[in-house]
Amino acid sequence: MRGVSALPFALWRFLRCEAFAAVGASIYFCIAMLAIFADRLAPYDPRAILRVGSRVARYLPMSADHWLGTTSSGRDVLSQVIYGTRAALAVGLTAAFVVVAIGTLLGLLSGYLGGWTDRIVTWLADIVLGLPFLPFMLVLAALTHPGTGVVIFTVSALLWPNTARVIRSQVLSLRERAWVEAARVTGCSTTRIMFVHVLPQVLPLAALYGSVAIGWAILAEASASFLGFGDPETLSWGVMLQEAYANQALSRGAWNWFAPPGAAIMSMVLAGFLISRGSEKLLFPKLADQ
Amino acid sequence: MSVLLQATGLTKSFRMRGRDVHAVADVSLTVAAGAALGIVGESGCGKTTTARMLLRLEDPTAGRILYEGADITDLHGRALLPFRARAQLVFQNPFDALNPRFSIRQSLVEPLRNFGIPAGAHAAHIEAVMQRVRLMPAAAWLDRRPHELSGGQLQRVVLARALIAGPRLIVADEPVSMLDVSVRAGILNLLREARDSLGLAAIYISHDLALIRYVCERTMVMYLGRVVEEGPTAALIATPAHPYTAALVAAVPVARVEQNRAALPIRGSLSDAPLAGPGCAFRTRCPYAMPRCETETLALRDVAPGRRAACHLVGVAS
Fold first, then answer.
1. In total, how many domains does chain A have?
2. Fewest CB atoms less than 10 Å from the CB: which of A128, A199, B71, B173?
C-alpha cells in the first residue's frame, strides 16, 4: 500500500527537481486535456465547411472568429488542430504501448534467461535496427491497406529494439543482485522471478522509452500522412500538413494553416525528448558528472 | 548422527586463456543433521562458490551432492523444490538480500507460498518466526520496506525468511561481516538459538576464525579452491597441521593493542599463487616449501582421528 501512495509523491518530487521533465510532462498533460475535451474546446466542427454569406470561407486570416484562420476548403484550423490531438494520442499511445510491451518482454527474457534466448533476441534486434524507417513504412503501406494500422505496426516493429536493449542491460545487472538469488533459494520459479521480482524494477525505464516512442509514432504518422500514405478520413496533423502542401499554402503565405499543426507535432516530439532528458539524471546518475 | 548433506569431489572450473582454472577443486564434505561446519579461507579461496554449489545455485563442473542420501546434483526446476525448502541461505549483505519493493511481509510470504504452505497458515508462520528473530511486535515490522530497517534488523528478517518454511540446513555466508560490531553477537546468538531449538544443521562461511570457533564444531580450511585442512575446530586452532592454517590462526586479531605480535609466517599475497598445474598451490607463500611441493599434488591425509590436512609435513616431519 505504501508503495502505491508513494508513487505520485515521488513523481511530483522528480518533476520539481527536473525542469526538463516538468516541461515535457506539462506538454503531454495539455495535449491530453485537449484531446479529452476536444468537442467542447473546438470552436467549430473541424469538418464543417464554413461560409461567409453564400461564399465558402476559404483562406481567412487569423481573426477573433477564427483564431488560426481557415483552410482552402473553409474549415477552421484551430478546431482541426484541437481534434488532431485525438489522432495523435491514439496513434502515439497505441504504438508506445506495443513498443514498451514487446521491448520489455524481450529485454527481460533475453537478459534473465541468457543463452539461446539472448542470442536470438540480440540478433533480431540487430536486424531490425538496420531497417530504414520511412522506406519500410512506405513499402508496407503500398503492399497493404494504407492507414494508421500500418503506422502503428511500423513503429512497434521497428522501435522495440531500443527498449529491449536497455531493459536487457538493466536486467543483466539486476539478476546478479542477492535478492534475486534469494528468490531462487526461496523456491521461486524462473517465471515468477522474472515477472514478480525483476519486472517491477525495470518498469520506470520502460515507461521512459514509451514516452519517447509516443513522439516517434506521431512523427511517423505525420510523415506517412504527408506523403499520402495516411488515412485521409482521419483528422490528424499529418493530414492537415498534406492538405496545406497540396493546396500550396506556403506560396499563398497561409502560414496560419500549416504552422500550427507543425508546431503541435514538434511540441509533442519535444515533450518525449524532454522527459527522457530529465529522467536521465534519475536513471543514470553517473552521466550527470560527465 | 545421520548424514544430512554430503558432497564428493565438488569441482567448479572456468576456462581462462585456454586453460582450465579451478575456482573449487575436489572438495568433499559431510554435514551431519544438527551439526555445524565452518568453511574458512581468505577472499577468492572458493568458499562462497562451494556454498553456492551445495545449495544448487551454481552447477558444479564435477562431483555429486547428496541430500539425505538422494542425489540432487542434476535436479532442476520443480524437482528441486523439496530440497530448496530444506536448505536455506543467510546472505552476507543484508542491505541487498531483500527485494527493495517488497514489504517484510511479502518477503516472508515468498517461501511459504512457493513451498506450498496453505495461505491460511501463513499468518501463524510469520508470527512465530518474527518472534524467533525477536522482531516484536510483528505487526510493527511487517508492512515496512527494507530501506526503513537497519542492517541488524534486516539480517533478522533475512534469518526469518530462511527459517520460516522449516529448513533442515542453513548456509550462512559471512552472516555478520557487513554488520556493525555491536549487533554481530545478537545475530549469531539468534542463529545458534534457532539451530539448538529446531535441530538445524549449518554451514558457516567466514574468513574470521574467531567467529567459526564460536559457532562450529568442525572446520574446513580452504586455499585457492582446495581444502588444505579439516577437523574439529578446537583442535585445528590449537595445533594447526597445515602451514596455511597456522598463518590464519596467527592472523586473528587480539584485543591488546600494545602487545607485540610476531610477523605472519607467510609471505607474498594470493596473486603470487600458481593458478594451475601440479603441486601445492600454497608453495609460493609457504615457509616450509620444499622441492616436492612443486611436483606432487597432495590429497588430504590423516593427521589424527577425524583430522586431515594436505601437506607433506603431515605425518612425516613430526
1. 1
2. B71
- Judged by CB atoms closer than 8 Å, whether chains meet at B145 and A2 is answered as yes
Q: Is B214 on the interface with A (CB under 8 A)?
A: no
3-state helix, strand, coil in chain A (%, to 5): 75, 0, 25
CA angle A63, A68, A69 (to 5 degrees): 65
B100 shares contact with chain A (CB less than 8 Å): yes
pLDDT at site B102: 92
Asked if B111 reaches chain A (Cβ–Cβ under 8 Å), the answer is yes
- Say if residue B5's pLDDT is above 90: yes
Mean pLDDT estimate for chain A: 86
Low-confidence residues of chain A: pLDDT under 70: 1-7, 281-290
Note the pLDDT tens digit of each residue in B66-122: 999 999 999 998 999 999 999 999 999 999 999 998 999 999 999 999 999 999 999
Least CB-CB distance to A186: which of B78, B101, B114?
Answer: B114
CA distance A6 to chain B (A): 12
- A187 vs B contacts (CB less than 8 Å): 81, 84-85, 110-111, 114-115
Q: Does A115 touch chain B (CB under 8 A)?
A: no
Task: Pick the residue from chain B with its C-alpha nearest to A186.
Answer: B111
Q: Quick check: A107 and A166 in contact, CB under 8 A?
A: yes
User: Stretch B139-149: mean pLDDT, rounded?
Assistant: 92
Site from A1, A179, A190, A193 to mutate, B interface, most B CB atoms within 10 angstroms: A179
The span from the CA of A193 to the CA of B114, in Å, is 11
A200, closest residue in chain B (CA to CA): B101
CATH code of the domain containing A96: 1.10.3720.10
Mutate to test the interface with A, among B72, B90, B99 (most CBs of A within 10 A): B99
The predicted-structure confidence for B25-59, as pLDDT tens digits, reads as follows 899 999 999 999 999 988 888 899 999 999 999 99
In this prediction, residue B129 carries a pLDDT of 95
Host H or E run for residue B172: strand B169-173
Bridge partners of B219, per DSSP, are: B38, B231
Q: Is residue A105 part of a domain?
A: yes
* Residue A289 located in a structural domain: no
On whether residue A12 sits in a domain, the answer given is yes
The answer to whether the CB of B50 falls within 8 A of the CB of B173 is no
Coil, helix or strand at residue B301: strand
Q: Is B30 on the interface with A (CB under 8 A)?
A: no
pLDDT at B150: 93
The pLDDT tens digits of the residues spanning B185-211 come to: 999 999 999 999 999 999 999 988 888
Q: Is residue A243 part of a domain?
A: yes
